[in-house]
Amino acid sequence: MATHHHGHHHEDMLSVEDARDRILNQFGVLDAQNFRITDALGLVTMDQIRSGVNIPPLDNSAMDGYAVRSTDVSRATYQHPVMLEILETIPAGSLPRKELKPGTTSRIMTGAPIPEHCDAVIPFEETTEKEFAKSGQLSEIGIRIPALPGTNIRVKGKDIKTGDSVLLEGHVITPATVGVLASMGMSHVRAIRKPVVSILSTGNELLTPGEKPAEGKIFDSNSSSIIASVFQLGAIPKYIGIARDEMESVRGKLKEAMDSDLVISSAGVSKGDYDMVKDVMSEHGDLQFWSVRMRPAKPLAFGTLNRGSDTSVPLIGLPGNPVSSLVAFEQFCRPAILKMMGKSNMHRRTIQAVLKDSIVNYDARRVYARVIVEQTEDGYTAKTTGPQDSNILTSMVRANGLAICPEEEESKNPGDIVTVIMLDE
Length: 425
Ligand code: AMP
Ligand code: MG
Prior knowledge:
The protein is an alpha/beta fold. The protein contains seven helices and 28 strands. A hairpin with a 2-residue loop joins strand 24 and strand 25. The site of magnesium ion (MG) has 8 residues, from loops. The site of magnesium ion has 8 residues, from loops.
């Protein structure tokens, strides 16, 4: 008879990396859609974007001042200003009406196009303007400094030239990107669409938040935390609701999820008597049930649900315990969603920190301990949030990182260096 040696039979367990690789293999980048630029923050461009315009569109003034021919003012000094005849005032948004003949100047505002033959702008502070009552009534102005050609002139096309490739494909749209698109006059941009992710909880014990508490029941927290996690990634959560531990209920709920890019369910994937979710899912598609060599979140389901006409929807079945479901979301759903969104960087930032207490690993899985990371003068420290049971969801609220105790190590102790996955955005 085979004896089970506590904690050391892992042939049937998948490593986190193997599980993640198998999952990611099933996902590709989604197609592109047209978005209003202000709705496109965080999305990824599908194609290279070229400019149809020059920015700036015309040579224009960088200062409020006087547009001059630099040769006219080459001998100007504070004591002996060069006097020039004022032709007009050019506000931003207007075109100059008069070219600069030698000995003339035009008042010009920041952003206004420069007149013909102008090659420098002298700021008001370097002129005699202040010394006269009302500048609008002046017919002449004294320029007190010389200027090299090009001074205070913003050259047409200096930022962007017509035809320039402004964004490459695969660019993650930031607020600055949105601004540049707007500056080129674009109201819309083609970007990879947001995945629709259906979210389903299972269990007879679950109540919807807002319902009256009932003895023996608990509120469904997984749906909410997974909806929020999906939303945080910029994808579209579709709440399906709670399926009871009955075949018909699970079948009905899964039907509602079929029009999505991914279905995330929670609970019903371990070995409990009422976990017939497994059976119903298998009946609808090609599901595998895995033990992943990690703590929390060992049980995991993955596969596809048939949608008819040869297409299918991938499903990731997370464990029921609230911490497990979030940690598994982190490891498996997050990268899958980011991959669909075309993001090349799917991984969180990791840091090295000095552990302040202990992480115990009693059955050779990879432990993800909830920790509070602080930055000190000597680098980062990490301290566990206290009890690490997979039902203590507040531990996840206090934590800003997941510290790893590797499979092959029995513990991490005070003073040890740990790798921490940072959970802050
Ligand atoms: P199960 O995988 O169905 O055995 O569930 C494991 C544990 O997670 C049980 O204690 C469940 O009550 C709990 N659980 C399952 N689903 C949820 C949920 N949606 N929200 C909060 N706790 C849950
Ligand atoms: Mg259950």
